[in-house]
Amino acid sequence: MTELLLLTGFLGAGKTTLLNRLLEEQNVKTGVIVNEFSQTGVDGQLVKAPAGIDLVELNNGSIFCACIKDSFVSALVQLSGAGLDRLFVEASGLADPANFSAILDGIRPYIKAPYHYLGSVCLVDALYFPKYFKLLPALRRQLEYSQAVLINKTDLADADQLAQCRQLIRQTAPEAYLCETTYAEVPYDRLVRELADRSGQSPVAQASSNTESTRPKTVTLSTGEAITPQQLAQFLRDIAPHTYRIKGFALTTEGPYLVNCTGQVLISKPASAEDCKEATSLVIISSIGLVIVSRVLEAAKKVYSSPVNLL
Amino acid sequence: MGKELVFQTLRHEKTPAVAWVPFAGVHAGKLKGYSAQEVLEDADKLYESLLEVHKLYSPDGMPIVFDLQLEAEILGCELLWAKSNPPSVKTHPLAGSEYVIPCKCKIPTKESGRIPMILDVMNRVKKAVGDDTALYGLVCGPFTLASHLRGSDIFMDMIMNEQYVRDLVEFCGEVCMRMIDFYAEAGMDIIGIVDPLVSQIAPEHFVSMLSPTFTACFDYVRSKGLYSSFFVCGNATLQLEVMCHTRPDCISVDENVDIIKAKETTDKYNITIAGNIPLTTVMLHGNQQDNIKCVVDLLDGIDHHNFILSPGCDMPYDTPIENTVAVMQAVKNTDVARSMVADYETNWDDIPVEIPDYASLKKPLLEVFTLDSESCAACTYMWNSVKDVQEKVFGDKIDIIEYKYTIKENIARTRKMGLTNLPTLVINGQVKWVSIIPSRDQLVADIEALL
Question: Does the interface ipTM go beyond 0.85?
Answer without folding.
Answer: no
